[in-house]
Design goal:
Blueprint lengths: L4 E10 L13 E10 L10 H59 L7 E3 L2 E5 L6 H10 L3 E2 L5 H13 L8 E6 L8 E2 L30 E4 L11 E4 L6 E7 L3
Parallel strand pairs: 6-10
Antiparallel strand pairs: 1-2, 3-4, 4-10, 5-10, 6-7, 6-8, 8-9
This protein binds calcium ion (2 copies).
One calcium ion binds next to loops.
């Protein structure tokens, strides 16, 4: 809003006898027109500049308070999200532990076999060729493991990691291309699902360095930080490895 200007007429009286300049002989009323803005009028309670400074200062304080409140809200939100994530992780861990405990206490797997998802798994502690390993599994009414899901690969990978006596301990699984080179079949005669391949980088390569016949059998557990569960390597079937047997739980 524009400030109202008020015209003040100020009358002053020059005293008689002042002869410096030619002056009227009678009292002379001199009128001066002085204009003030309303807010600058003498006698106003607060000067305009002071009011402006005060206004700016108040705005700054309000802005500062809002900034602090906003920062506090952002921090509180961050802390809440972090705690929520941690809680979910803890809950998932508890659920996994409860599931494992239930499987272990309620499983009908024989001693030495580990239960998981309705199956029993045997991890050998001695090494042998792929054929010998398969024969041993069959002698225990099982077979070399067939991996049907990403979840099963994850379970086996976590188990294998905990069972390595040496860093280069690897385990035979029931996958081979010994019938036709490049055609990978599981021991139950099913073809390898393209969406469930877990080959280590650069594998399979059918390398002939160890055996001129190449490599037709698969072991898992390759070291050096497998990415995305990719730990399979084709090897000569005649090499000695540990192995994983599988069979259904007893009814
Ligand atoms: Ca091969
Ligand atoms: Ca290979």
């Amino acid at each position: 809003m524009a400030e109202a200007e008020v015209l003040y007429n100020i009358k002053s009286t020059r005293a008689r006898g002042n002869t410096d300049v030619a002056t009227p002989s009678t009292d002379e009323h001199i009128y001066s027109n002085i204009s003030y803005s309303e807010t600058q009028r003498p006698g106003s309670k607060q000067p305009a500049a002071s009011n402006r400074r005060s206004g700016v200062t108040s705005e700054r304080v309000a802005l500062l308070v809002l900034s602090v409140l906003l920062a506090a809200a952002v921090i509180a939100l961050g802390v809440t999200l972090y705690e929520n994530t941690q809680t979910k992780k803890s809950l998932q861990k508890l659920q996994d532990e409860a599931k494992n405990l239930t499987e272990e206490t309620c499983s009908s797997c024989e001693d030495g076999w580990e239960p998981h998802g309705g199956k029993c798994y045997f991890f050998s502690s001695v090494t042998s060729t792929w054929d010998q390993s398969r024969t041993q599994c069959k002698s225990m009414r099982g077979d070399l493991v067939v991996i049907n899901s990403r979840e099963e690969q994850r379970f086996l990978e976590s188990k294998v990691r905990g069972k390595k006596d040496k860093p280069n301990d690897m385990f035979w699984i029931g996958l081979t291309d010994s019938k036709n080179e490049g055609e990978w079949l599981w021991v139950d005669d099913t073809q390898l699902d393209p969406s469930l391949k877990f080959w280590y980088d650069g594998q399979p390569d059918n390398w002939t360095g160890d055996n001129p016949d190449g490599e037709d059998c698969v072991r898992m557990g390759e070291k050096d930080g497998p990415t995305d569960l990719k730990t399979w390597v084709d090897r000569s079937c005649k090499s000695d490895q540990k192995s994983i047997c599988e069979k259904p739980e007893k009814a």
